[in-house]
Amino acid sequence: MFRLAALSSLRSAFRPSFVQGMTVRRFGDAAGLLAKDEVTERVLSVVKKFEKVDPAKVSATAHFANDLGLDSLDGVEVVMALEDEFALEISDEDAEKIVSVADAIKFIAANPQAK
């Protein structure tokens, strides 16, 4: 038992740490969820940076296909960009349900793994 604990602490002690840009995180509720306004701001930022999107058309209620003119492959790319932004994995089943900015905000704000 102690050997396992010692190995675990050694692994974490010698694991290289990578320095990235500073991230400011506001903590949401006690469940560890991100605040909805923070999620909204970050989702809007990701979608606005997508090369095929006119940033002026992006809103919290914009539909990927109807309002932003994205096809299904573009929608997948946006979901992948959101996975990168929030450091989480979105299953294929859940990704198919994310067809608008509002869907993305709702899913991410309710996901405890989102960072």
Automatic annotation (TrEMBL):
GO molecular function annotation: acyl binding; acyl carrier activity
Localization annotation: Mitochondrion
Domain Carrier positions: 37-112
Species classification: Eukaryota, Discoba, Jakobida, Andalucina, Andaluciidae
Keywords noted in UniProt: Electron transport, Fatty acid biosynthesis, Fatty acid metabolism, Lipid biosynthesis, Lipid metabolism, Mitochondrion, Phosphopantetheine, Phosphoprotein, Transit peptide, Transport
GO cellular component, one term: mitochondrion
Family: Belongs to the acyl carrier protein (ACP) family.
Pathway: Lipid metabolism; fatty acid biosynthesis
Keyword Lipid biosynthesis part of the UniProt annotation: yes
Main location: mitochondrion
Pfam families, sorted: PP-binding (PF00550)
Gene3D superfamilies attached to this UniProt entry: ACP-like
Physiological role: Carrier of the growing fatty acid chain in fatty acid biosynthesis.
InterPro entries: ACP (IPR003231), ACP-like_sf (IPR036736), PP-bd_ACP (IPR009081), Ppantetheine_attach_site (IPR006162)
Protein's recorded name: Acyl carrier protein
NCBIfam families associated with the record: acyl_carrier (TIGR00517), PRK00982.1-2 (NF002148)
